[in-house]
Amino acid sequence: MAAETAFLDALATHLAARPALAGARIGAAEPAVAGELPAVVLSLAEVHRLGAGLGERASLITGALPVTSTVDLANPVLPEEPTFRLLSTDRRTLVMPHGGWVKLDGSDLPLEAADLQVSVAGAARTVVKAAPGANEVRPDAPIGTLLFGAALPPAGHVVATYRIGQWERRLTPIAGMLHVDIRAAAAADVQAFAGAVIDALDKELGTLPAGLRKIALNRVSSIAVPDAAFANARGRGLDFAFEYEHPIDRPDSSGGVILRIPVAMQTDATTETFEVVP
To answer: Looking at the domain assignment, is residue 272 inside a domain?
Structure first.
């Protein structure tokens, strides 16, 4: 999701939780009929991304990030590594895109059914710690592989949901002007809802949405005269200057697929061959 859209969604969720705004439609859509009043409409009058390029910064995060990966058994490769097959020749061992799996709480103890879910062509497989049976699978959590008790079919998909213990969190900072348009049937309601929005975005009066670094009220318009074209609704506009950081969790540093690379070393008359493995 784009940082700009994520910012508006986070604000809508934050405002919807305020008791003083109960009953109002809050979001990016303008009210179309009188039945959609009162309404609090959010838009970005001005926005730009901060920093070089797209403004993204990354930091290493540890914990337990849920990831769902899908492998096509008819073509078991990754789009970015089309020459490396994820499935062994006996079709029992499958390499998933990420390694370093952990339990729900982030610990690295042996995985249980709650920590890993695997299905083959829509049929669930039971996670075990010993040699797997026909409908079972044994994970190798540090490397990120699955050993199945029977050969996988030539078609269908393997879907695995696991948690990784380390990943990249990228931050996209944006700044600009937030416009809030309040619409209601009566001027008193418009004034009350406008005050509730201002209070909800005042950090001195409570917490702000995660990632909202700065926000300041810049403008409060007058309450407009009744709009004859829209059921005589009244309106007021609010403008806020803001800075927001949108986080995106990506499992870029969780291990991933590592190719087996043959390495030949020659010393005088002797040649030795080694393998680099995950």
So the answer is: no
Q: Is residue 92 situated within a structural domain? A: yes
d(Cα 276, Cα 278) in Å, to the nearest integer?
Answer: 7
Question: CA 268, CA 270: separation in Å to the nearest integer?
Answer: 6
Number of separate domains in the chain? 2
Other beta carbons less than 10 A from residue 24's beta carbon: 22
Distance CA 263, CA 242 (A): 54
Domain identity same for 121 and 224: no
Residues 243/175, Cβ–Cβ less than 8 Å = yes
For 206, the domain range is 3-57+171-250
Q: How far apart are CA 263 and CA 48, in angstroms?
A: 49
pLDDT of 29-86, one tens digit each? 999 888 899 999 999 999 998 864 444 556 777 888 999 999 999 999 988 788 889 9
What pTM, to 2 d.p., does this model score?
0.65
Give the list of residues 6+ apart from residue 50 with CB closer than 8 angstroms, or none.
Answer: 173, 174, 175, 243
Residues 81 and 117 reside in one and the same domain:
yes
d(CA 14, CA 132): 47
DSSP string for residues in 95-128: E-S---EE-TTS--SPP-TTT-EEEETTEEEEE-
